[in-house]
Amino acid sequence: MLIQNGPNLIEKEPILETGKAYKKPLDIIEFELKDQGDQLYSKNDLKNQWTILFFGYTNCPDVCPTTIFKLGQIKQQISKELPNVNLQILFITLDPERDSTERLREYLGFFDPSMTGLTGDVTKIVELTSNLSVFFQRINKEDGYDFNHTASIFLINPKAQLKASFSPASSIEILAEDIKKVVKKSN
Fold first, then answer.
1. 96: Cα separation from own chain's centroid
2. What pTM, to 2 d.p., does this model score?
3. Which residues contact 110 (CB under 8 A, 6 or more apart)?
């Protein structure tokens, strides 16, 4: 009697509605910025927890506040449904000239004071955005300036590696489901 083996199962990443999960996570580069409490924050602070990361600036008129609001709601939902998952929200400014630690503390306090906001030397921020393929460009206007920027949401695993990216245009419910899929698959 001939026994035939079934096909080898290839490990697949979860299929996401709002973005993509990476089969081989990308290592985050070493960095050092300051949080809204004026404390140093580095790559090491990403370890041993899941991190939802978003780049933006506090003077952003639309995408940034909408996305940060969504991230606060998503964190609450995931914390309720997956209480054993340690999850932090990290907002890194693209505008350190205006976004001081004090300004970040005030701004994030409107949404969720448990969020961490980072600012620092613009060259350090550029290195980190380059590592994650985040585009941003200052646009000068008569009354000041704004930025064009990548508005992706990034999910960093507890080993400080980029595990997935998502579109901020998606609903809170769909984003939360996709983030939970990635976290559950990795735990």
1. 18
2. 0.89
3. none
| Segment 76-130, tens digit of pLDDT | 999 999 999 999 999 999 999 999 999 999 999 999 999 999 999 999 999 999 9
Q: Which residues of the chain, if any, have pLDDT below 50?
A: 1-11
Provide φ and ψ at 140, rounded to 5°: -75, 140
